[in-house]
Amino acid sequence: MLQFLLRRLCEAMVVLLTVAAVAFVLFQFIGDPVAQMLPMDASPEDRARLTAALGLDQPAWVQFGRFVAHALEGDFGLSLRQTAPVASLFAERLPATMELAFAALVIALGLGLPAGVWAAVHPERFSSKLLMGTSVLGMSLPTFLVGILLILLFSVELDWLPSFGRGEVVALGWWTTGLLTLDGWKHLILPAATLGLFQTALIMRLVRAEMLEVIREDFIKFARARGLCARTVYLGHALKNTLLPVITITGLQLGGLIAFSIVTETVFQWPGMGLLFLQSVQFADIPVLTAYLCLMALFFVVINLCVDLICAGIDPRLKLSPGR
Fold first, then answer.
1. Which of 35, 290, 311, 321 has the most other CB atoms within 10 Å of its CB?
2. How far apart are the two ends of the chain, measured CA to CA in Å?
3. pLDDT > 90: what percent of the chain?
4. CA distances for 66 relative to 12, 62, 89, 193, angstroms
5. Dihedral angle sign, alpha carbons of residues 222, 226, 231, 237
C-alpha cells in the first residue's frame, strides 16, 4: 500500500508540473494584461513601470519558476484583474463550486442508479424504454440549452424558483454554504439539475449495460436456482458486481463536474470558480488561469487515487501492486 501511494504521489507531481507548464505557456498568448489594466492614454513609462511591478518583464521560465515556488507555499500571486491574492479568490469561490458539483452528483446517483437497475431488470417494459429514450435526450441536449429551458419554465412561467445567484448563505469559518437556508436550497435546485442531467443519463445507461451483463453470469443463475428472492438476486448480487465501473466513472464525472461547470455557472451566474475562470479568460488574468488549471489537475489526481483505493476495498482481487 505504501509503495502504491508513493508511486501515485510521484506521478501526481509530474502531472501537476506538466499541466502548470502547458497552461503557463498557452496563456502567454491570450493577451496583454498590462494594456487592459492601464487607460488608453497611458505613457510608455507607465507601461514599463507596471510591467516591471508585475514581473512580466522577466523571461518566461523565470516567471514560471517563481509561480511554482510560490504555489508550493499556497501563494498563487495576485490577480491582474482584481488585484487580490488568487488564493483568497479561490477560497471565496470554492465552496460554491463544490456545493454545486456534489448536489449534481447526488441527483445523478439518486436518479441514475435506480433507473438503470429498473431498465435492466425489466428491459421489455414501456417504462424502461421510456427511461432509455429520456437518457438519450439528456445526453444530447447542450447544458446551456437545458439551463435556459429550466429558467424559462420554473422561473419565468411558473415563478417557483430563482434564476440566478446563490441566495442566502451561512458562513462556517472561511467556508460558506447555502444548504442551511431555504433560500440557498431554492437557488441550488435549477443549476444542480442542469449540471446533473447529463451525469444522470450516463450513470443510468452504464448501470443498465453492466447489469445486463452480470445477470447473464452463472452465479446469478445459481442464486435463482437456490430460490433467493428477486430483490436479493438483483440488489445483493447483481448490483454489487456492477459497482466497480460505476464507481470509476462516477469519480471521473465528479472531477468533470468540478472542473467543467463553467457553462452552468455562467447561465445561472453562480459565483463559483468556473465563472471566475471565464471572467479571467476575458481579461487575460494569467495567475488565475494557471492556478485554476493546476487546482483542477490536483482534484482529478486526488479523485482518481480515492477511486483506486475504493475499488481495491470492494474487490480484493485488485491488488495495489506496481504491476497493476
1. 290
2. 12
3. 10
4. 20, 6, 20, 41
5. negative
| Per-residue cell: 40 | 488608453
> Looking at the domain 93-269, which fold is it?
MetI-like fold (1.10.3720)
Distance in angstroms (rounded) separating the CA atoms of residues 101 and 82: 25
* pLDDT of 319 over the 80 cut: no
Percent of the chain with pLDDT over 70: 92
Q: Could you give the C-alpha distances from 237 to 181, 214, 229, 244, in angstroms and in order? A: 40, 9, 11, 13
CATH 1.10.3720.10 residue ranges for the chain: 93-269
Distance, CA of 255 to CA of 300 (rounded, Å): 5
Question: What is the rounded distance in angstroms from the CA atom of residue 85 to the CA atom of residue 77?
Answer: 6
Cell of 295: 487546482
Mean pLDDT calculated for residue range 135-157:
89
* Cβ–Cβ under 8 Å, residues 312 and 92: no
Number of H helices, E strands in the chain: 14, 2
Burial class (CB in 10 A: 0-12, 13-18, 19+), 279: middle
Residue type, 122: H
Residue 28 corresponds to which cell in the numbers above? 502567454
The three three-digit cell numbers of residue 164, written as one number: 440566478
Element (H, E) at 175: strand 175-177
- SS3 for 155-166, per residue? HHHCCCCCCCCC
Which uninterrupted H or E stretch holds 27?
helix 2-27
What angle, 0 to 180 degrees and rounded to 10, lies between the N-to-C axes of helices 86-121 and 286-314?
40
